[in-house]
Structures are given as structure tokens and as C-alpha cells.
Here is the input.
Amino acid sequence: MSHRLYEKQLAQATRPDQSVDLARLGELVTAAYAEAEREQRRTEHSIAVMIEEVDQLNRSLQALVAARTAELAEATDALNMTLDNVDQGIVMIDSEGRISSYNSRFVEFAGLTHEECRGRPLFRTVLDRMMARGEFDRAEAGFRHWVNTSAQEPDNRILEHTRPDGTVLRVQTRRLPQGGEVRVLSDITDIVSRQREVELARRLLEETIEHVTQGVLKISADRRIEFFNARVVELLGLPEGILRLGMRFRELTEFQFRNGEFEGQSEEFIHFVRNGGVLDKFLAYEHKRPNGRVLDIRTIPMADGGAVRTFTDVTDARQHGDRIQRAEAEFRSLFENSIVGIYRSSIDGRQLRANPALARLNGFASEAEMLQSGEYPARDWYVNPNRRDEFAAIMQKEGRVSDFVSEVYRIRTRERVWVSESAWIVRDDEGNPLYYEGMVIDATDRKKAESEIQHLALHDVLTNLPNRTLFLEKLGNALATNRRGNELAILCLDLDHFKDVNDTMGHDVGDVLLQLAARRLSRVVAQAGMAARFGGDEFAVILPELREREAVVQLCKSIIRKLSMPYRVRGKRVFVGASVGVALSPADGTDPHELFKKADIALYRAKRDGRGTYAFFDEGMTAAIRARREVEQELRRAIQNDEFVLYYQPIIDLERNQPIAYEALIRWNHPRKGLLSPAYFVEIAEEGGLILQIGEIVLRQACRTFAKLPAELSVCVNLSSVQFRNHQLAVSVINALAMAGLAPHRLIIEITESVLLIDDNRTLDILRQLRLLGVQIALDDFGIGHSSLSYIQKFPFDKIKIDRSFVHDTDDGTMNMAIRRAILGLGHDLGVDVVVEGVETTHQRDILIFEGARYAQGFLFGRPLSAEAQFGPEFAADAVRKVA
Here is the structure.
């Protein structure tokens, strides 16, 4: 059979006369072979492309598996790191009963070693070792039984266990869905101890109340007897059966009238008694009974419209009776108004008494409603019914429980809440149990707060970023676990010109700006590391396990770019920048504090290089930069540790030869370098913006000291030009005066001409505000500037201080004398006090007196001394506190 293609080609090559055109047939066959070759090549190409796609898919799958494997390893490392840094001991047991995971605290609490827990040993074996070492010798039989059986039968429990060393542990077990269990051990020794102290104090109060000698009578709003004690019958001399619950109060008073109880009393008093004898306000009076006994009778109105009346025999022991009456009122108020639930129950759990707080906790409006409901919390109060057995077992063994935390139901609504119970057994004289008494506290918020407190302790409140403590902890862990030899980077950064935003727009705007900057920083760092805030505008970043240094460079650039973009705060565009310092480990060290210090030095270098850039630490950085930065860091610690003290130098009235004021001069009591003068640190403090905080310390301490001194003495405080950039300066002065109770006219603010050179209009406005408060303003170092007279013309200073340079050569008879006399005359004409500084000899003093000087200051009259040395030993406490 011929091929169909060939037949088709033969038909196409046949002429009309049925002869075959061989040339045409050859062409058709050749074309067919060429098309077949092309089709084969297309098929081969398709197969090759398919093979390449399959190979690419295999490579992608392999990369995905590797990435997921790395993520799982990282998550496992993070989990193990977290477990080793919690306060609880944690151990996980798998479905085969073997230890699959544990932390160091578990080893400590269990009295084991890491070697005994490694290698997935059987948990039963570990328990046997603990049992053999006497770990459970002090435990009750039930607890030991649970220890013996719990390894084979995991369950959910919360128990307490006292170790041989006295440590009290709360042991919490929880079954895992996949089999096995997790056990958590918490040290509650301090909680148990504190609760026992509280219970002891309460027991003491109860024993006092049991000896009350007062008669107590409760009158309802409709004037019926609701309650009375036997002491009422005794003190009023009533026959048995006369006083009954539910009887009208008027029946009692009518009986007393018939028996001559009120004979000899005033008409006003008799009218008061006949009209009920109960008012809507507190009433206290004394009544002498026919038998000669004197009763102190008090009526206390209640919120329900009724009243409580007490009777105290004060004939022989009035003062003693008063104290007992107050104790009774305190106990009743404590019981009725306490926010803590207080109860008394029978041994089998039936409620006998419950205060309003406990009734509300269980969903009832009152104690009566709760007691009438027929519900027994002992039977169905606990969400975990076993908790009642545990409670009873502890009570039977210890006679009391402390901080017994459980999840319970509100009896009426069945809503779940957490409570903390503390209770004890009340026994009769023979030691037989009578009933339980105790307190119940709603612990729902406490459990939530415990979690929040833990978070707050490790995070910045404003930005919710990790704080310094968590940062250094993570850094230490990262350095300790960096076993692959990779580099680790620390970045220190702060916001350029942030202080200007605070000063010009207010701290509330600054806080919003910090929150926005923190969000941007977190997004930039993302999964690459961890960002933290140390305070103010200081931030830090950890970049663990770097593979190439260029990644750090790119991240620094991204941080600077993102943080330098405009911010919109309350409808306004706010601009700040960012500078970054970088330190690398192990190149720059492996100690966390040393690395951070070096990154901070690099940041200081970046800021000195013009801000808005980054710098890597290198040993070639000048010692001066490191030294200045170190001083700045020490200044920050000095502010926190209150290391600054004030020395005081007198300003003398030359006519009376008595001090009229003292100039406060700051000193830094450095813990290693001793007492440092302002020349050592003020310039650095001004450059770093710390002078504002230091200035407030000086103001508060000076005002506080002089508030204790005679009213005729004033104190001079120097203010820096930097402080006048703070628009809240006047507020700071007001606060210092108010906190100390110092009259404003006793405070003298000293400024130099340099203060007025910077934005003098704004400075003058602040000076006017202070002047309106009554604060005196003095121009210091007068005469050494180029425009002193113009400033006197702009602002009416209260005092002028002539610079010491015009005093050193008082006998030269030329220029200095002329300048002094001119200034003294100017002050006299303007009515401004002039103080001459730098007086060191009697000769200088005598010349100044001859020239008409009234006030002087200098070593001749006294060197700067501490408050204790200058004013007396009663100021020693302040000095010690400041130095400590």
C-alpha cells in the first residue's frame, strides 16, 4: 500500500495527459523532507525547554525547603532563648514520657544538673532521682502520690510544693493535645510570706474586737431594732426579754421613761428622746443613768437611712472605751466597705457570713441574697472542681492558705473570673475546727497586670520599642550565641534637631514625633534585627549574623533617608534628621557595654561631621572626641544619680559687714574624680543640651536651701544662654519657688551679656516674665562686653556685678579706677545695686569703700562652701543626700 502523502504528491505531479512530471515530483518530495526535518527540530526544542523548566522548578523547591528549614531553626533558637530568660522553671515531656525541652530555672528549682536533663531522659527517672535526694520529703502523702503517678498519667493541675531549702513553688501542669505535658514551676516564697504577715495583722485586729466593751444597737430606717448585743442590755439595765429584734425603737424609749431613766434631764433632751432620739447626722452625748454610771452614747447614721447607736461605760475608763469604740467602728467599716471579699463559712463550705464585696463578686446584690440563694461555693464555685480538694487539703495540713489563686464562677451568673483566696481555720478552746474565715480578692486584673508589667519592664512606654534593659539582654545573647564567626553590628542613632522641635513646638509634639520615628525605624529594620529606644531621641539597633558589611551601610542609609523625610504632626510639617554610629563585633570587641560605647563614640563622630550621616567606629577616632563623649555620658548618669552639689559664696553689705545674699555655684561630685568645677563640664553640658536639666537641679536645690534660711537673705543663680532657648524657663522658675516655698524676691537670676546676644527680643520677654513674678535680675560680668550700656537701656536690671578684672589692680590710679567709678555712679543714678566681684584683699576693700561701693564679693569675705559648712550642720542631710 503506497503512503497517502506520496499518492498526493504523485497526483500533483501528473499532467493532464496522465504522464508524470518527474521534476515536479522531485520538488514535492524534497519539500516534504525539509518540513519533516523542521518539525523534528521544533519537537526537540520543546523537549529541551520542558526539561529546563523542570530543573528550574526543582531548584526553586530546594531553595524554599532550605529557607523554611532556616526559619524553623531561627524560631527554635528564639524559643530556647526565651525559655532561658523567664523566671519560671519550664519542662516539656513528650508522649513517650521523655524530657523534650527544659530551661535553666527548672534545673535550679528541681535541684538537678543540666547533665541529668540532657539527652531526652525518661521523666520518671528524673523524678526518682529527685525523690532519692529528699526533694519531696516535706511534701504531704497526696503530693508524693501525685508525683509518683503524674509521669504515667499527665493531667492539668496547680499545686504548691515547699522545697527542702524552704522555697515555695507553685507547680502547674497542662496536658498537651499531641500527648505529653508541660510543667511550669514558679517561686512564690515572697508572696506566701507577705500574705502570712497580712493574715497575722488581721487576726490581731479580730482579737481586739472580740474584747469590745461597748453596747451596740442597730436601728433600721423605719426605726426598728435590727441588731443589739448583750452589752446594750447590761449597760441600760434592761430586764431580760424587753429588748427584742424587730421591736420599734420607740417601745424601748417609752420603757425607759416609765422606769425613770431620764429623770433630771433637760427639757430639750427629753423632747429629743420622745421624738425618736435618732437624727440623720452623727450625734454624741453623755448620759448619767439613775445608778450613777455614765454612758457615752453615740448615734451613727447609715447610708440606708438607719443608724447604729453605741453605749460605752466611761465612768472608770473613758479613754479605753473610746479606743474600743473606734476599733468597733473600724472593723464594721472594714467588713462592710472593704473592696476585698470577707467571709465566714462552715467546714463543709456553707456560707455563714459574707460582706458586700464578696456578694458582688458572686453576682448578688447583698449578703442576704447570697445566703438565701442556697448555693454552696465549696461545691461548684471552682471551674476546676479539684481545687476545692486542694484547698481543703492545705487547710487541713497548714491550718491556713495564702494567695490561693483559682478560676471560679460567679455563683449567680456563671461568669468566669480569677480570684486569690487567703483563709484560716478558727478553732475552739480544745483546738477543734469551728469554721473557716478568709478573704477573697478579684485577681483577674492582677493576672492581666502581671503580663503588662513584665512588658512595661522591658519596653519603652512611649514607643513600645524594647528598652535599654531588653536591648542589652538581647545583645548579650546574640554575642553569646554567635558561634558561626559572623559579624554582628550595633547601631546608635539619634534625631538631629529634635531638641529644637521640643523647644519650639512643645514636648507633646516631640512625643508624637518620637512615636512616628520609632514606627519608621521598626519598618526599616524589620526582620534584619531589633530596634530599641533608650530615652529622649536615642535609639539603637542590633543586626545579628551579618554576612557582608555592605548590608550595614545600606541599612544606615535607609535609616537616615526614612527618618529624615518630613513628618506631619497635628497638621504641621516637622523636619528632623538622623545620625548613625556603628560598631562591629568581633572587630570592635565582644563585650556588650564596650560595643555600645564604641557605637556611641561613632555616633558622636557622625554628628560632629555634619549630622545626617553615619560613621563606623575605628581606633583612629581622636581621644578628645571619646573623652568629651564620655563626659557627656557621665553627665547623664550624674543627673540620674543626683551627683551635683551647690557651694555658696557670700555677697557682703560693706556698710554693715554682713552678708545680704549668696551666689550658688555648682560642683560635680564625681564618684571617681572627686569635686569638679563648672569649667570641666558646663561647655559639654550646653553642647549636649543637658544644661537644661542641670539648671533645674540648681534652681530647685538653691530655692530649697534658702527657704530654710532667714528671710533677709537672697540667693543668686546663674543661667546659661542655652536655658533661655527653653520657652518653659519661667515655668521652671515658678515650680522651683513653689516647691521650696521661697518668696520670689529672694531669688536673683544672674545672666551675662552672652545671653542677650542670642535672640535678645525673646530673652528680654522671658526676663520680663520673671521680673513680673517678683524675681530679681542681675547683669553679671558687667563692663567686659561691647554693648553693656545698650542692655541696661533695654532692660531695667535690679543689680549690676562689676567683673573681677576691674578690681585686680585697684591702686593703679588709671583706667580700672575710672571704669569702676563710672559704673558705681551709673548704678547710683539708675537706682540699681552694684556688686563688685573679685575682692581678695583688705586694701582692695578699703579702696572700694572710698569709691562709694556698697556691696562686694570675693575670697576676702569667704570662699565658696557647701550648705553644711556655710550655714550649719542642720543642712548636712541635704548635702549627704545629694552626694549619695
User: Anything to note?
Assistant: The CA atoms of residues 176 and 182 lie 7 Å apart.
